[in-house]
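This part of the workshop introduces the protein records we will be handling. A record pairs a protein's sequence with a compact description of its fold. Comparing a sequence with its tokens is the quickest way to learn the format. To make this concrete, we reproduce a full record directly below:
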Amino acid sequence: MIKGHVHSLETFGTVDGPGIRFVLFMQGCLMKCQYCHNPDTWGMNEGKEMTVEEALSEIEPYINYYQSSGGGLTVSGGEPSLQPRFVAELFKEVKNRWNLHTTLDSNGFNDPDKIKDLLDVTDLVLLDIKHIDDEKHIKLTSKSNEKTLKTAQWLSEHGHKMWIRHVYVPGIHDQEEDLVHLGQFIGTLNGVEKFEILPYHQMGVYKWEAMGKEYPLQGVPSPSEEEVQRAYRLIAEGRKQSYAVN
């Protein structure tokens, strides 16, 4: 019997895909983002062990809300693609039983060919591109962005739908050339239905403190509306440049 390590769940998610959604947060992540608001999801074998049936029984009471709103199930984390068999099985079951829409919220730090069974039963991927510049990505997350960008290209080539998300931290994401470059990259991809900037916030600081970890972005403010709009503008410019070339 396949079991998954689950961090937590949310029954009425409204930002993690279309409609009202059940959001299951999986345990385990290989990136160590400086702004992570759930550092307690990093450990692989922590959290609550759950079978697919147990997860389904948590979802079932709210099915009408998900179906009537055009919503469904989103599996997030941590990084859910690190537990691909459990998530694939869960996605298959919610499709068979209730025809629910399935969304994978991922940082793309995996090999798509290895998790093809999971991606085949995923209707939408919310792909987080943490930074387009590899050196800055390594500083921000402790890992290269190479796998994430390859995942984006694989999804594009294999006809998968995606929403691309980009957390914006003042001082880390405000270089004009990085934002234009990110737009240029997104402009080469097929299947991007939506692009969202997620303004950095300090909501996770207390978790770092509770875990006895020093918070790396101490004192960094959330971006202003002007900063966010400037980023959108520059990324859109980059996308247009790619469209012109293609």
Notes: The longest helix spans residues 225-245. The chain has nine helices and eight strands.
